[in-house]
Write a sequence for this structure.
């Protein structure tokens, strides 16, 4: 426990071993004004109401951040029940438990609640229209949280990269690209799908600021700017000092089970000016991530 226990906000992080959860626990512990409780999958099962109620009643948190998610977009097409049990029903279970405790329910959502047809970055006031099972399941979670907990906060992030990696996907996209480049494997990246990369640490810091402000509502917490996966890979190799060739390809030439939005990039019109100004461009965030992981030492 850090800080004055009489003033410290009690925060529970469900999914604390994941990319975002790991940085959230670290950021809140460093903040000094919180008692933070990390709950991994082994300690709480969001699909089981009894498990959630037992864990949260024991901790009595004032805010619960639900990072638990079924994130395998292509697998969700073949396993919709699993996606909805975690992203939809799991969100409902957490929301109901929060309501019973009078706690703020924070739900981490995704850019895939949009269809990409806008052709420009989506803001918080744009109407969602998902085009794959994963996106539908996450939007269901958003609606269920809003309908079942009086105090709620929904944060949408996209294309997450963080030091912890993600067990659900079996690794980290940036690390995969670097590993393939170092091994001399061919690199072919999609150049006609746009998104907004999100550095997990930056998203965690922004979310901490929102909780400090006692914010509620929907917020987009990606880094500034957007790019294609090809552009993201090019910048990754450039910053790491690697010059492997990368072939840009169309998504139509890449095997994917689930449809992807053509442009699911996000922008925020809801953040206050200090927090909006504090957000940094994704290449700057990527450089800090590579430095944190020791990849910049490859440069000659």
């Amino acid at each position: 426990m850090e800080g004055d226990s009489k003033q410290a906000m009690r925060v529970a992080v469900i999914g604390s071993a994941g990319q975002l959860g790991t940085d959230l626990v670290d950021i809140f512990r460093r903040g000094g004004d919180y008692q933070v409780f990390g709950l991994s999958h082994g300690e709480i099962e969001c699909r089981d109401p009894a498990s959630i109620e037992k864990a949260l009643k024991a901790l009595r948190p004032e805010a619960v951040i639900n990072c638990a998610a079924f994130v395998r977009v292509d697998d969700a097409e073949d396993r919709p029940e699993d996606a909805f049990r975690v992203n939809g029903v799991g969100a409902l279970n957490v929301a109901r438990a929060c309501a019973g405790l009078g706690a703020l329910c924070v739900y981490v959502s995704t850019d895939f609640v949009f269809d990409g047809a806008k052709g420009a970055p989506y803001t918080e006031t744009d109407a969602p229209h998902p085009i794959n099972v994963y996106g539908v399941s996450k939007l269901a979670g958003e609606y269920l949280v809003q309908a079942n907990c009086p105090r709620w906060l929904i944060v949408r992030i996209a294309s997450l990269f963080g030091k912890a990696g993600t067990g659900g996907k079996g690794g980290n996209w940036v690390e995969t690209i670097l590993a393939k480049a170092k091994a001399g494997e061919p690199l072919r990246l999609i150049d006609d799908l746009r998104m907004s990369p999100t550095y997990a640490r930056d998203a965690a810091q922004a979310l901490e600021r929102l909780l400090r402000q006692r914010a509620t509502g929907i917020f987009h917490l990606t880094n500034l700017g957007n790019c294609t996966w090809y552009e993201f890979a090019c910048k990754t190799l450039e910053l790491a000092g690697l010059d492997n060739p990368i072939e840009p390809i169309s998504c139509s030439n890449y095997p994917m089970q689930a449809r992807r939005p053509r442009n699911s990039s996000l922008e925020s019109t809801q953040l206050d000016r200090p927090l909006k100004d504090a957000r940094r461009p994704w290449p700057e965030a990527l450089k800090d991530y590579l430095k944190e992981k020791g990849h910049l030492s490859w440069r000659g």
Q: What stands out?
A: The chain has ten helices and twelve strands. The chain has a mean pLDDT of 93.
